[in-house]
Amino acid sequence: MKALVYTGTESTEYRDEPEPTPGPNDALIAVDAVGICGSDMHAWHGHDARRVPPLILGHELAGRVLEGDRAGQAVVVNPLIACGTCRYCRAGRTNICPDRELIGLRLPGAFAERVAVPQSNLIALPDGMDPARAALTEPCATAWHGIALATPHLHVSPGDGEALVIGGGSVGLLAALILGHHGWGRVRLAETNALRRSTAAAAGVEVFDPLNAPSGQNGAEADWADLVVDAVGSRATRAAAIAAACPGGVISHIGLQEPGGDFDARTLTLTEITFLGVYTYTPADLEASLAALHAGHLGKLAWIEERPLIDGGQAFVDLDQGATPAAKIILRP
Fold first, then answer.
1. Which candidate among 7, 96, 155, 306 keeps its CA 20 to 30 Å from the CA of 106?
2. Are residues 165 and 263 in the same domain?
3. Which among 292, 332, 281 is positioned nearest to 97, based on CA atoms?
4. pTM of the prediction?
5. Are 134 and 125 in contact (CB under 8 A)?
6. pLDDT tens digits, residue range 224-234?
7. Structurally, how many domains does the chain consist of?
8. Structural domain for 49, as ranges
9. Are 320 and 249 within one domain?
10. Residue 69 burial by CB count (10 A; 0-12/13-18/19+): exposed, middle or buried?
11. What is the pLDDT of residues 51-89, one digit of tens each?
12. Which residues contact 127 (CB under 8 A, 6 or more apart)?
């Protein structure tokens, strides 16, 4: 089969790879659509020691079952493979299972014509749903999970609340759209890339450039946000999130761009700001996200860009250079 293989730092190769070999409890999936995730970009830059080249990356996928009990069915795949028996799995928190795996991490991923995954990780696609839109389920579930975790800690009702989302990639844009769907009083999105700002604005999101916004305008002021969603996860965005959060506010930290850096625990303590680490999603988040996407609750999703898998190498370059307005590039094998 053909696959886009991560071969080294900032290097991919579209080439023939061995066919997947499904285990007794696996399904063989024909990949119809697969998104490029920020974590795939992180690996491409050589910044993820867990993803060792040569490796087929990719985990945001929709496709059709070729072999298995559900042969012929259109599905979205939960790429997170948990043990199912530990205390976290028993509590429904499969995302923090100590023995979890993820396709495209150490296991072969979905930047390929076919991939093998556990049959228990399949979610049926609603009839007629476009696979390219369905491939947004995984990033949408990440945003959904971050908001769901934060909600019990809020000191205001959504209708009276103000939210800041940092980062206009797919997770950040979807977080802003989810907050809008949930009826938040005001949602502002901070994004430094002008092309992505235009994309977010076209999707109906209030967006600003945090690098050029004067203090007191467009969300650049301090101590105003009841909820901050950091969909970037850098030293700079963590500092910005803490500065923006109001006393008693909540920070949902989703992004994983950069570890370390100063962390203003004093401000968090003195103002009782809740800081939540957020990792991926649960099966319930995936189901809720797929339903919301299919129902149109998050808009027309016109901000995705589709490209053939054979052109995936250039897609990585364009994303790295900020040369595309798309919040998500979807590859089609």
1. 306
2. yes
3. 281
4. 0.96
5. yes
6. 999 999 999 99
7. 2
8. 2-136+301-332
9. no
10. exposed
11. 999 999 999 999 999 988 899 999 999 999 999 999 999
12. none
